[in-house]
């Protein structure tokens, strides 16, 4: 494993935190990570008046990782405005998992801990590959096996689907919408 300069990661995370856009929560967050090629990538939270579409610092970090050429995350430090360590939320743990080195570490108030301990039994590419290998997740495979719902073949959509969906959306009340239109 690459040697981790935790103090350097904390400085990079604090610098990112200082650039956070958090006018609504007033809770800026910064994150920095060591990449397997020695780079440090960082991100900060970016809020929005439409609260649900705000971005966590780890999202910005992963975006910087990918935009910078990719790689695997080796170590992560996430901090608040006081410089204190923060743990990634559940959504960010899943996002980080996708880009983590096998032995990635995440700093905590108790010291570095393995990413695998933060997201045990994580959902990942192997789950998708397993389902794809069985042919169970493919609409094309279900169609070829005669299991695709009629009118739901993406290669030949039923025009009634679009019309029924439009009627459902335009309908003034549930009483005027017939769910059978979507079958």
Number of domains: 2
What's the Cα radius of gyration?
Answer: 22 Å
Largest beta-sheet details? 5 strands, mixed
Q: Give the CATH H-level superfamily of the largest domain.
A: Cytidine Deaminase, domain 2
Q: How is the CATH topology of the largest domain named? A: Cytidine Deaminase, domain 2
Helix content: 25-40%
Alpha-beta classification: alpha+beta
Taken from the alpha-carbon principal axes, the silhouette is globular
- The helix/strand order is HEEHEHEEHHHH
Span of the ends, CA to CA: 54 Å
- Which strand order do you get reading across the main beta sheet? 2-1-3-4-5
Protein name: Cytidine deaminase
Family: Belongs to the cytidine and deoxycytidylate deaminase family.
Catalytic activity: cytidine + H2O + H(+) = uridine + NH4(+); 2'-deoxycytidine + H2O + H(+) = 2'-deoxyuridine + NH4(+)
InterPro entries: CMP_dCMP_dom (IPR002125), Cyt/Deoxycyt_deaminase (IPR050202), Cyt_deam_tetra (IPR006262), Cytidine_deaminase-like (IPR016193)
